[in-house]
Amino acid sequence: MIDRQTREYRFGDFVFVPHRQLLLRKGVPVVAGSRALAMLELLVSRAGEVVSKEALRSHVWPNTYLHESNLKVTISALRRLLPHATADLPYIVTVPGRGYRFVAPVQVAVEQAVAPAEQLPGSPIASTPLAGLPITSAIVGRDEEIAGLEARLAAEGWVTIVGPAGVGKTTVAVGVAERLEERLGDGACFVDLASLTDPQLVGAAVATALGVHSDAADLLAQIVDILRGRSMVLVLDNCEHVRNAVATLAEHLRTVMPCVLIFATSREPMGSKSESVFRLGPLQTPYAGRELTAREAMTYPAVELFVTLAEQAWDYVFSDDDAPVVAAICRRLDGIALAIVLAAGRLSTSSPVVLLGLLNESFDALSLEASNGNPRHQTLLATLDWSYRLLSRDEAQLLRLLSVFTGAFSMEDIIGVADDRHVRVAEIAAGTESLVAKSLVSVTYLDGALRYRLLDATRSFAAAQLATSGEHRSAQQRLADYLLVVFERAEAEWAWRARSEWTAAYGRRANDLRKAIEWAFGDDGDAPLGVRLTAAAIPLWDELSTIAESVERAGRALRAIDGTEPGDPEVKMKLMASYASGLNFSEHLGREVDAAWQEGYLLALGLGSTDYQLRTLWGHAVLQSFSGRHGHALATLERFRVLAERENDVTAMPDGTRLTLMTRFYLGEVEEAATGLTALARSQVPALEQARVARFQVDRLVGIRVGLALAVWMRGDHRQAQGIMQSALDRAAELDHRVSQSNALAQIGVPLALLLGNIEQARRNGALLARNLSLHETAIWSPVSRFLDGAIAAAEGDPQSVDTMRAAIDALIRNNFVIRVPMYLAMLAEAALAHDRLDEARSSIAAAHERSDIQAERWCLPEILRVKGLVHRHEGDMEGARQTLWQAVEAAAAIGALTFELRAAMDLAELLDDAGERTEAARLLSMIHARFDPSLCSRDVVRSGEILERLRGG
Q: Is the predicted pLDDT of residue 125 greater than 60, yes or no?
């Protein structure tokens, strides 16, 4: 019987001696990795049989999770080592769905004393096995880095991959080494230095990995002797805690052994002039807010890695429904490869949704039960703890402090929270750069400026250390104090700095600000500081369109003031104005909103603040207009005008003029409003960038164009109305101010597109409005959005549209947001007639007439009369229909609403035609139709042309 320890296999030109890890071809050693040789041993020992993939995994990688791609890579590498046995017959063939078979004839014999042709007498090299490359997780999304590093290593000779814990440094290093070992004469040797506690043991670890055990005093000299004449790559993994010793060894080897390439991984550079440093970033993840299908999500390496591992381990099936959840998981993990590997392993017990919830609460869910894995890699937090323990006392304290930031931060921010009498700015900067070098702080460029950031897992770990150190309250106090200074400065800059620059500078701090305010109003916080912070933040909330948040935070701050000693009256004035402004967009416009505006005005009057007197007067006028009190709104706006002119506040006057003209528009002064808004729009173009959104709720130019578009449409200028509407929507989108955009979409973007007959555009704009409302809650527009959805459906003949429109109008009336409700009721009545719901139409048009009188909204009276005439006609009252339609034509002419005049004339002409008065019908309609550009393709102009053609043709 042949002892396995002395067994050798012969096939073709090859001799394979497994226990010596020796493969010879024609007596010449073949450089091969230990995994490839282990796989070859199993295949040749079972030559002719099918060896399953599972059997290969168990033999080569016992007790180790393995991605199938690793198996395929090793099989491919083994095939490259073994050229075809004959011209058309390989040594190893694939048996689809089952595994692999070694098909060449194999002879088994006792090992002979074979001397390789190129082995020198007494040389320890040829038979000395190298420590093979380890098994790594699937290599996904790193092709570009691996190719670049392969070329760089060949050119530079020594490359150190630097990156944060778990980013995949070892995986990439092994990927590069695998490619190099195929073409280097002596392959690759892998040395894991993680377990070393004494830097002096680095040399011994390298010597052991090279296969030589020696007690020689000059170990470095023996390593050089071992490597002499070899062409290979030496991979030194996990060097951060012994980097000085590694640097000394590597520098010496590069000097005396230039054919040996050195590849190191570390969380910070070795600090040698000889090394080339490559910083490895996380895997790319999908951007937040982007809706992706499963196919699209898989184009992102982080998602691809997660899904690949989950599919291999748990037969997971990736779907479109899971795509946003998996994308969020990968974002939460910052694309860190180790974290993704650990998270994918949790799918055996958790769905993606549950896993995301766990990760949002804590990173403790990321653990791996592995008996033979590196303990530092069995939990993500363990890898961070390893790095943390290597920090100096000051570095550790700074890292803990930086965990108070929620996202990216600047050096100014770091100094702002870290500076005190005992630490100099230079020391803070040096400490930060040291943390960057150690890959605990990431560096990026945002808007052309240098920014720092803790990855989420690092921040979570550092925050836990902050809490256990007893420094949490002090750190939060520092952050809040610093942000108060920042946002009081921001409030002053808001008056003169370009909006785009201002929002870029301060918008990025919004989450830090939220965190500081939450802490300040918490149990161990500082409520007076929270009140001041909230007041200083008002311009930011307004510019970011966070209406609901602004109301909630201002309300809480006001309650805090009322529950304590009277604070700064100026702070209370600002908070009250902000609170009232937010209530203007709330679900219900009740008496409490009037009271808030009145109290804000009285506070401003008492303090002599012209700015806040104007703000509160303007906001109160908006409320009065929204709630159908247009006469009161005009009176309030007159007080606004007198004050602005007396104080010569030229920046406020255009906003008052715009709102006054729109109020007069609703009162029926259509021609005057169109003329005035046209002049106002022209006057504002040169000062475009000086307008500020936050002062008067909506961007000035957007507001002017919204009103102007509707006014010129009613005047009959349909093409101009379409252009102005689009310019308003474009500017709102460019500003990225959701309140301005929602106002534009709700007031013209959807209704005017619908009136012009552009159903598809109305649908697109309606969807955008709904999306805005889901992102930034402005409750006031929700019923309007639902009504407009119903109106679009009505235009397409949907019988359910009537109920949708009715429910939305009822909500508007309950909420006291009744501006335009008379027009909405007329639209509802016409939709009801289209579906033969006469009672609904009759009651709706009666309510429209009543509300038009109560609210003095005469702008839509011609439409109410027109639809009322249609109701009479459906009732069979032809004389009543004729008289009412004539009233509609005359009412439209009286206010300069040519479009409404045309709409009423079309219905009247069809009534006259049915009564046998075709000539009169044609005469009436032709006079009005002739006043429109015949090339217009708007719905009303097209329809009137078709009616005229029919009348004349008859």
A: no
Q: What is the largest CA-CA distance in the chain?
A: 123
Q: Where are the alpha helices (DSSP H) in 647-798?
A: 653-666, 670-684, 700-715, 718-735, 738-744, 751-755, 759-775, 782-795
- Residue 100: helix, strand or coil by DSSP? strand
Nearest to 412 by CA among 319, 509, 292, 268: 509
Which H or E element spans position 124?
none
Other CB atoms within a 10 A radius of the CB of residue 689 amount to: 9
CATH class belonging to 778-953: mainly alpha
Fold of 391-470: Arc Repressor Mutant, subunit A (1.10.10)
Domains 4-110 and 143-279 share a fold: no
Q: Does the pLDDT of residue 123 top 70, yes or no?
A: no
Sheet holding 232-237, edge to edge: 188-192, 232-237, 260-266, 158-162, 276-279
Stated length of the chain: 954
Closest alpha carbon to 73 in 101, 36, 40? 36
Closest CA to 125 of 226, 23, 216, 207: 226
Contact 7, 110 (CB under 8 A): yes
Residue 373 has pLDDT above 50, yes or no: no
Question: Going along 26-181, which residue ranges are E strands?
Answer: 28-29, 50-52, 92-95, 99-102, 107-110, 158-162
Tell me what pLDDT residue 369 has.
45
Query: Average pLDDT in the 796-814 region?
Result: 95
Helices and strands per DSSP (H, E), number in the chain: 44, 15
Rounded distance between C-alpha atoms, residue 673 and residue 630, angstroms? 14
Architecture of domain 143-279: 3-Layer(aba) Sandwich (3.40)
Element (H, E) at 417: helix 411-418
Residue 18's CB is within 10 A of a number of other CB atoms, namely: 20
pLDDT at 936: 81
- Classify domain 4-110 at the CATH class level: mainly alpha
All structural domains of the chain with their residue ranges: 4-110, 143-279, 294-380, 391-470, 778-953
Q: pLDDT tens digits for 913-926?
A: 999 999 999 999 99
pLDDT confidence of 131, banded at 50, 70, 90?
low
Q: What is the pLDDT of residues 735-767, one digit of tens each?
A: 888 888 899 999 999 999 999 999 999 999 999
Mean pLDDT of 666-690: 82
